[in-house]
């Protein structure tokens, strides 16, 4: 970062720590998968915390559990529409699907019955399961967004059942070690911050308990560092290595539900929280446990993200701080547009590009540098989608209205492209080409110059 950017970021961090009386606060900015700035204020054991000091992540743990579930889906071990009961039979709340649990739309109670799990030693799965009566389903599954820590406790058990070992062991083997997150652990290890409550009317501290949450641990157990959380922030932006395909991470970032009405500013995907701010769509997660606050967010388009970790129960506006760090970087050092360069393409595909018509509406088919096609309306209104190859003369929709639909190229006797069949919609080079299989046929009189 430039010196002016560095100072602006540090000042924002310092203002947050001082004005909200945070014992210690660390933060970083991530760009293109790497830390480009980090800062710290306050003290841990009398010293300024560094990028290797552990803080508790709280609910950021959920996005990691979600990644383990998506790995199982990609392997064919489960379907997102499977009810929980298919893989964890016998629960009294097993009608909710895997996707609904991931997106907090399963209707389950927010907190586990009994003593508040975040400050109490957690029981095992049998104890959690026994505590869940049918009354703990608060809403019809799929009806609405209702944040549920219990749902993620169940997802952790699902991972354990299908892998045959604890979800923590699975996370280390399949997620943390491959991503180089060696300082992310289920219990504090090495140098770590103590969680505190700050007295509302005096500058004194009260240590908070940090027990093992047991079966509820998948909802908020992990501890981590700036260095490790930066890697996870890059993961959320698509730098997923061999852990998940970037397309799966993109699926996790897609909006599954919103939690604030018709014009949404906050929502949830499959394990990621989503925020819209300043024309950007940010993905990541917030975290809160007694004594700790955390947040990591990234703009997948600009590949600029930020994270912050604090050891205070409340008071600090950590999500706002994280968003502000991203905004400051984009304001002071906006990304330069990528340099255009010619790309290598299959010449045979050029015959498919250009002007096509759906009825009288004009569309352009463009060949993209990554080998994809983009079909978009020639005007500002209409349906646009990208497509990837799916066999000879077959293309699969990736986004927009035609996501998951198949585009097939129809050719004439000479082998030249004559029409496109996209989910029964026929696109032709000229409007309503009578030589193409237009649904319902074309009036034999053709185009006419006046009203009948």
From TrEMBL:
Task: List the InterPro entries hit by this protein, alphabetically.
Answer: AmpC-like (IPR050491), Beta-lactam-related (IPR001466), Beta-lactam/transpept-like (IPR012338), DUF7586 (IPR056008)
**Molecular-function annotations in GO:** hydrolase activity
The signal peptide here is none
The record's keywords, sorted A to Z, are: Hydrolase
Q: Which residues form the DUF7586 domain?
A: 345-429
Q: Where is the Beta-lactamase-related domain?
A: 13-316
Q: Which Pfam families match?
A: Beta-lactamase, DUF7586
Q: Return the PANTHER family for the record.
A: D-ALANYL-D-ALANINE CARBOXYPEPTIDASE, D-ALANYL-D-ALANINE-CARBOXYPEPTIDASE/ENDOPEPTIDASE AMPH
- State what protein this is by name: Serine hydrolase
To which species is this protein native?
Amycolatopsis antarctica
Question: What are the leading ranks of the lineage?
Answer: Bacteria, Bacillati, Actinomycetota, Actinomycetes, Pseudonocardiales
